[in-house]
Design goal:
Number of helices: 12
Radius of gyration: 20 Å
CATH topology of the largest domain: Jelly Rolls
Number of domains: 2
Oligomer: single chain
CATH architecture of the largest domain: Sandwich
CATH class of the largest domain: Mainly Beta
Distance between the termini: 30 Å
Mean pLDDT: 82
Shape: globular
Strand content: 15-25%
Number of strands: 6
Structural class: alpha+beta
Low-confidence stretches: 28-34, 168-176
Helix content: 40-55%
Largest sheet: 6 strands, antiparallel
């Protein structure tokens, strides 16, 4: 039974990746969110109800209507509190959205970034407007219109633009110089290593040299660019991201601490314990007890 379930999930996920998107009413979601691999898809949800959303190492207690943006490279989970939860979900791949020239920058918005704002509380007027966009996407998805992919892509872009208008203080930053471009590419490569979804496949890139090799630049050039743009060393940013992932795995999985340490590239549990305590001031075990 388990093998059959995994087989169905792989087949569904491959079909969804080929299609590039899926839009559905949450109340009618009988298999979509259960069977797709979160690591492959961006996600936008319009929901009404009460829930706790665990995003990276933070938890958001939500009530009422919200717009949620999920990045496939950032771990998140959803705990529904309401007995009735309604709304819409749109899944899409990065390739699907980036087929439009001007779409790439939208994925660099504060909604999809680690440390950004993945959740917006919305008014009833905003909810009704966004509801119509999701309904139109569902309608187009079921149609045989030749250019429906482009139309759905436009609706996704419109939703993101509407969200940006709700947060006028946030601006998409255009990369203007070599240091910023290299730092941006470094962060993209860093985020591609996450989330960790299998304890048996440990993190591959763990040091500044590893990332420099992956980007085909000298490690000194990478360190200089990252330090100039962020004020932090490349190694510090890598360690902070690993620590953030460690917190998420401790909170959102039932893996034991040794498994989490191995998945994050630590050969021995003591190495992971020492690393985590140095970065967070507490042990992995204490963090799990306090937050789970």
């Amino acid at each position: 039974m388990e093998k059959q379930r995994i087989k169905e999930r792989v087949a569904y996920n491959n079909e969804l990746k080929l299609k590039g998107f899926n839009v559905f009413n949450i109340e009618e979601d009988n298999k979509a969110t259960l069977n797709y691999s979160r690591k492959d898809f961006y996600k936008i949800c319009l929901t009404t109800g009460q829930s706790n959303i665990h995003y990276a190492d933070r938890t958001y207690e939500q009530e009422g209507s919200i717009l949620f943006f999920g990045n496939p490279h950032i771990p998140y989970s959803w705990e529904t509190i309401s007995s009735r939860y309604q709304g819409y979900t749109c899944l899409f791949t990065e390739d699907f959205l980036n087929k439009h020239e001007k779409s790439e920058s939208l994925l660099q918005s504060p909604f999809f970034k680690l440390g950004g704002t993945p959740i917006l509380n919305i008014s009833e007027e905003q909810r009704l407007f966004l509801n119509q966009l999701f309904k139109r996407m569902i309608s187009e998805q079921a149609s045989d219109y030749e250019h429906k992919d482009e139309l759905i892509r436009n609706y996704i872009e419109l939703i993101i633009h509407e969200a940006l208008k709700m947060q006028p203080s946030e601006r998409i930053k255009k990369e203007n110089n070599a240091s910023e471009r290299l730092t941006t590419v470094f962060f993209e490569l860093l985020e591609r290593q996450f989330p960790i979804e299998n304890a048996e496949h440990p993190l591959q890139l763990k040091s500044a040299q590893d990332y420099a090799n992956g980007l085909a630049v000298h490690v000194n050039s990478l360190n200089r660019a990252v330090k100039t743009v962020t004020g932090k060393s490349t190694s510090t940013l890598i360690q902070e991201r690993i620590a953030s992932e460690a917190k998420a795995l401790l909170q959102h999985t039932n893996w034991n601490i040794a498994e989490i340490g191995f998945a994050l590239g630590f050969e021995y549990p003591t190495y992971f314990n020492n690393f985590f305590k140095k970065l967070t001031g507490t042990t992995p075990k204490s963090h799990r007890v306090e937050h789970v």
